[in-house]
Amino acid sequence: MAPRILLIGGNPKHFHAAKAAGLEVVYCQFPAEFRPEYGPLVVGALLADYTDWATFGPLAEAAHRTWGFTTVVSLTEPGLDPAGRVRDLLGLAGPSYEVSHRFTDKYVMRRCLAEAASPDVPAIGAEAMTDRESLTAFGARYGYPFIVKPGAGTASFGVHRVDSAADVSAVHEAISSRRDVSDHPFLGQYDLDEYVMEEYIDGTLYSAEAFSFAGRHTVLAITEAVTLPGTVVHAGHAIPARLSAAEVAAVERMIPAFLDALGYADGPSHTEFKFSPRGPVVIESQNRIGGALINEMVREVHGVDMHELTMKWPHGTVTPVLQAPPAEGAAASWLAVAQPGEILEIAGVDSVSADPATVAIDLGGAAPGDVVRSLDGSWDGLGHVAVRAAGTTAAIEYSRARVADIKVRTRAVED
């Protein structure tokens, strides 16, 4: 019998990666997100809120008795901590809840880095936000601007930049209002009760796409993000990042030290950072593969499939990648957006898909009748288009052009 895994969350890409690795899948998903076409791809399914441990824990135990999975995998942000809890409960190998939570709770991550005091991972000022006065005190202590963001979450959702003391009241009010909002899909998967304040690091955002093999960490690629002016929305992602050899070397020192500080030994990681006078500074990190078609671009440029590594490494069916293969060409993805409202028509996808330069298209299943939200974060985009080109700059420009060829017609929705 083929080895079985419990896959928490995720999408058909993850099913196919598991099947290509010779695995059978027991799938856990929110009931509203399970599709009938998933049925033939799995040997069993748990339809439950896997972020509710009181409910999910007993179900995971029962599923283990019934289907006998030996590995737990999650490649979606809200599934990472539950995956750790299941491993702890059943005594399975892989990152524990404690280790996973060092990634998913941004304040816990900051405390770990401060305690590690590694010269290769510069620490920055960070404190938990408690009330309006804590914002004022943080600005007085560390200066302006500074960042306030949810302790949990992803996709730039709920991130605020406080530029001066005059902004404190408005930011505090925005955070308080967000806690009372219940209709955003993001809020069904993440707890936005806790916020963390951090020193602001200026400059371009990058991310290191890495994989850890029994404590040996390999940076497989470095991605450069393109942020929309005046926002925190990362619309573009490009590989390889336009960095000097010295900057790449600094990142390759920083990432292993960072992952060691968090006690992470096995699996993929996606670590965002910026360069400062102190060296590369971690902004945040996830113990999963990055979104925005990053895996598809790493595979295109460096020839390494992180989905394949994630599925095969726990079963000993793949050898460690000790050094990233050199980049061959470049790739970039760009966020597809539309005017808020109900989608009436999506045109141009077929022609973009037929372009030989197109690496992948993922519009998240968007279709007529769906409602487009205002662009508060990349979560509110429709998805991404990734293309290849000879160089990084050309790839960024062409990804923007190809996304512009996809026309999404909407109509306003009355409140």
What does this molecule look like?
- With 415 residues, this protein is of the alpha+beta class.
- The chain has 3 domains: 4-93, 3-Layer(aba) Sandwich (Rossmann fold); 125-199, 2-Layer Sandwich (Dna Ligase, domain 1), CATH 3.30.1490; 206-411, D-amino Acid Aminotransferase, Chain A, domain 1.
- 31% of the residues lie in helices and 27% in strands.
- It contains 12 helices and 19 strands.
- The strands form 4 sheets. An 8-stranded antiparallel beta sheet has the order 13-12-9-10-11-14-18-16, with helices on both faces. A 4-stranded parallel beta sheet has the order 3-2-1-4, sandwiched between helices.
- Helix 2 (53-67) crosses helix 3 (80-90), helix 3 (80-90) runs antiparallel to helix 4 and helix 4 (97-104) packs across helix 5 (106-116).
- It is globular, with a radius of gyration of 21 Å.
- The N and C termini lie far apart (54 Å).
- The relative contact order is 0.11.
What are the defining features of this structure?
415 residues, alpha+beta, Rossmann fold, Dna Ligase, domain 1, D-amino Acid Aminotransferase, Chain A, domain 1, 3 domains, eight-stranded antiparallel β-sheet, four-stranded parallel β-sheet, 12 helices, 19 strands, 31% helix, globular
Can you give me a brief rundown of this structure?
With 415 residues, the chain is of the alpha+beta class. The protein has helices at 12-20, 53-67, 80-90, 97-104, 106-116, 132-142, 168-179, 245-261, 294-302, 306-312, 349-354, 392-404, and strands at 4-8, 24-29, 44-47, 71-73, 126-129, 146-150, 160-162, 195-199, 206-213, 216-227, 234-239, 267-276, 279-286, 330-336, 341-347, 358-362, 371-372, 383-389, 407-411.
